[in-house]
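can u pls check wat happens w/ adenosine monophosphate
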Amino acid sequence: MNILLLGSGGREHAMAWKLAQSPLLSRLYIAPGNAGTSTTGTNLNLSVNDFNAVKSAVLAYQIEMVVVGPEDPLVNGIHDFFLADPSIKHIPVIGPGRHAAKLEGSKDFAKEFMIRNGIPTARYQTFTRATLENGISFLQQLSPPYVLKADGLAAGKGVIICQTIDEAIIEFTEMILGSKFGNATQKVVIEEFLSGIELSVFVITDGKSYKLLPEAKDYKKIGAGDTGPNTGGMGSISPVPFADMQFMQKVEEKVIVPTMEGLIREGIDYNGFIFFGLMKVGDEPFVIEYNCRMGDPETESVIPRLKNDLVALFRAVADKTLDSTTMSIDPRTAATVMLVSKGYPGEYEKGAVITGTEMVTDSYVFHAGTAANPETGSTVTNGGRVIAVTSVGATMKEALEKSYESIGKINYKGKNFRPDIGFDLT
Ligand code: AMP
Ligand code: GLY
């Protein structure tokens, strides 16, 4: 089978690496991909949001399945685009349609869905420009810290947590009246702050049944000890020690099953991944957010633990036969550390030559923001998050030691990383 994978991050390199191991795969194309994905298949230089270009590629390369990595094309309706076009409607797209993807694309839609289906989440209300004053009153009823969320996609920057009521009122007003997040601020969700520890839980579904994937913990802050601004993610660990069997049973019972049943009852056709961003408060799971895709860098520690053939798994999603699939997961720990560019998540330079990846023997090297320099052929930095290094070990300590040792072998100007991934889990 010929597969087109959309995306260009570490998540997509990890998926491409896994897809390429399948005997069911004929040819793999990645669009636009990065320097790492080009070692697993053929990169196509097109934008994931240019659906006509995706269609042309699908027809030109006899693609038989499209796997969507990031959220944007899903929220923008790539699945619906395929279904509406007779020349490509028979080609399965792994990833939900526009309506279902609103679980990620609209915080208000997601919160309403959770409330309707009795899924534990923080108390909230949604406000618009017309209800600004009510929003301020609602803030005054809550106690600090205050959580403000832009309704729409905001590239991971749509959540502001304020420590004081004055700051919260200023930010809230600015979010609604100003154009801080563009269209994303037509609605703002104000919600209660949940105090606990976060984890990411994933399922893959064909819309009828689902299979649980390994859970992971992601490290979002740039600085050691979880300090400084949020990033896309600086590392991840899977499994998560505090997500024991008892807790995961609660997650299934109180979160996953009601979500699946809600989707079915409400006629929301869903296929692909569901990412539950959870907060463990005491012993109870609360949903912070849904995403309609896998996490990054969680994928880089989840995929190496998956023993199933990924092409077969996607085929079962497309055929709606997931219920007869048996999952096989490596019980060992995978630890991912992200190498980033100096300055990230603020401004950073691109184009630094990356050396030493070929010296890494004990870890997987998943490229994120990398590119091949067309003149020299060397691999250069091309983003804030550059390379995810993942190692598998009998213990988290062993996996992390391997990843940090491998990181020492990779060099480029401005190399930066968190030295303490997993620090809170020992
Ligand atoms: P989100 O974009 O929804 O994932 O939110 C970004 C981050 O903000 C989350 O990963 C949490 O760390 C934090 N956050 C979001 N909602 C809440 C909440 N209700 N209580 C505490 N922290 C939150
Ligand atoms: N690592 C969090 C995310 O992918 O949204």
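The mean pLDDT is 95.
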